[in-house]
Amino acid sequence: MTRVPHPEEVALAAATIAPLDRAALARIVRTSLDEDLGSDPGRDVTTQSTIAPEARVAGVVAAREDCVLAGIDAIEETLAQVAERLSLPAPHVTREASDGDRLPAGGVVARLEGPGHVVLIAERTLLNLLSRASGVATHTRRWADALEGTGARVLDTRKTTPGLRELEKYAVRVGGGTNKRMGLFDCAMVKDNHIVAAGSVAAAIARIGERFPDVPVQVEVESPAQAREAIAAGARFLMLDNMSADAMAALAAEVRSGERGSGEGESGEGGPGGTGKVWLEATGGLTLANVRDVAATGVDFMSVGALTHSSPIVDLGLDLA
Questions:
Q1: Digits of tens for pLDDT over the chain (321 positions)?
Q2: Is residue 187 classed as helix, strand or coil in its secondary structure?
Q3: Domain check: are 208 and 240 in the same one?
Q4: Which residues contact 148 (CB under 8 A, 6 or more apart)?
Q5: Alpha carbon 20 to chain centroid distance?
């Protein structure tokens, strides 16, 4: 049977800033251009009426507010796709910054030079994607900074903009956060309805292990009693949903005490039930104001849907020289 990776391995692997999937980016840009231009190749009735096809322009993409930059690859990808649609040369791009850089207002992201039709038709799409990704990265960085030194890490969720998950989860990584799971396929999360359907927590966990032994399994619990039931059933990754700080601290102390009592190490085979460390994730009611207090309870992770569903975009602009 394939060994199931435990959450620490998953989190540490995801903590590395894995590059943005280029095929996913190409799909996102293609869909965005279809929305803007009407079809492939589509048309921009203003630009193509007022500027000659052979006209060349130079411009600068710059931040208009302090931010953490993410999604810079969208600049070249968008320009290249527009150039291909119009059968024109792709503009030359000189990068002045990199993803992960903290840019001040006025900071230059890139300089562009090439056909005016390509630059102006691509402008809004590349800014939309760059602004969205940078907004997520900037917001995530605030959480990562707030957790600095606590030992806890901030996780994202599946509450992403439809069609933009790859870009937004990449931006979370750039901002210092961790991707818990990309979708329903790579991590099982047992919730109330799954327990009802399966008949019990133990039955749900067992069925997942039989059908998909290669994925980590998490159980959502709302009370210490539910957490104990899940641990007794073999769960080693718990999401503590809207649990009070006092309850989380007491549960974490109980769980860690059990681990020490069985001689369990960071990745050993002891712990409650004798099957390894129990990883605890807090969720619900988390804010930047209370995040360090929650981390002090002893949880390993905290998931924040707002990283992707509520991050404001960053104001970036493209100005012709």
A1: 334 445 555 554 444 578 999 999 999 999 999 999 998 899 999 999 999 989 999 999 999 999 999 999 999 999 999 999 999 999 999 999 999 999 999 999 999 999 999 999 999 999 999 999 999 999 999 999 999 999 999 999 999 999 999 999 999 999 999 999 999 999 999 999 999 999 999 999 999 999 999 989 999 999 999 999 999 988 999 999 999 999 999 999 999 887 765 554 444 433 333 457 899 999 999 999 999 999 999 999 999 999 999 999 999 999 998
A2: coil
A3: yes
A4: none
A5: 11
Q: Are residues 132 and 150 in the same domain?
A: no
User: Is-contact 172 156, C-beta < 8 A?
Assistant: yes
Whole-prediction pTM: 0.91
3 state SS of 69: coil
Displacement of CA 310 from its chain's centroid (Å): 12
Give the domain range for residue 168. 7-14+144-309
Let me know whether 110 and 131 are in one domain: yes
Distance, in Å, from the CA atom of 174 to the CA atom of 141, rounded to the nearest integer, reads 8
Residue 270 has a CB neighbour count (10 Å cut-off) of 17
Is residue 153 located within the same domain as residue 168? yes
Total number of domains in the chain = 2
113: phi then psi, degrees, rounded to nearest 5: -150, 125
For 286, the token pair is 């988390």
CATH of the domain at 100: 3.90.1170.20
Which residue has 């396929």 as its token pair? Answer: 185
CA-to-CA distance for 175 and 144, rounded, in angstroms?
7
Residues noted as catalytic: 124, 159, 191, 220, 241
| Amino acid symbol at 38 | G
DSSP three-state, residue 52: coil
Other beta carbons less than 10 A from residue 60's beta carbon:
16
Do 181 and 299 reside in the same domain of the chain?
A: yes
Residue 113 included in any domain: yes
